[in-house]
Amino acid sequence: MTLKKGDKAPAFTLLNTEKQEVSLSHFAGKKVVVHFFPLAFTGVCTAQLCTVRDAISMYKNDTADVVAISVDSLFTLGKFKAEQNLQFDLLSDFNKETAAAYGALYETFPAFGMKGVAKRAAFVIDQNGTIQYAEVLESPGDLPNFEAINQTLASL
Fold it and tell me: Of these residues, 14, 45, 77, 90, which one is catalytic?
């Protein structure tokens, strides 16, 4: 399934690194940027999330929340979050349901041949739960278009 601008964002409820449930519905009335990333502690994933970390004041000033989702366990994500000093929720999609619902799940991860790894992707969801920007990358070595994400947020 390919999600696009104008689609309703699929609902999700996932555990964060503090073992608390975080649902898309918690962001009702707010903008949210949802990043998917393949695996914690890998170079490009670290670059992706550190880029978000370093620009977090821009997101917060724009009243947008940020979450990042991978299929890693919440324990692995907790270590990664602490090591990289990330100031936003990392959510564990260990059962791979959310990545699949967003069309962001590799059947076979190209780099290592692992099954069921999240694709790198970014979605901007508006206050009404509608997708305003959708980018799912096929190559795990590519980064999301942060400029397009920022322009989408600025236009909302």
Answer: 45
What is the per-residue pLDDT across 36-93, written as a single tens digit (0 to 9) for each?
Answer: 999 998 878 888 888 888 887 666 555 689 999 999 999 999 999 999 999 999 999 9
Task: Record the pTM.
Answer: 0.92
Instruction: Specify whether the CB–CB gap between 106 and 119 falls below 8 A.
Output: yes
CA distance 94 to 29: 27
Q: Domain 28-155 is of which CATH architecture?
A: 3-Layer(aba) Sandwich (3.40)
Domain residue spans of the chain = 28-155
The CB-side HSE value for 62 (13 A sphere, CA atoms) comes to 22
Known catalytic residue at 45: yes
Tell me, what's the pLDDT at 43?
Answer: 78
Residue identified by tokens 């590519």 is 142
Rounded to whole angstroms, what are the CA distances from 95 to 72, 82, 118, 145? Answer: 9, 23, 11, 27
φ/ψ of residue 147, rounded to 5? -65, -45
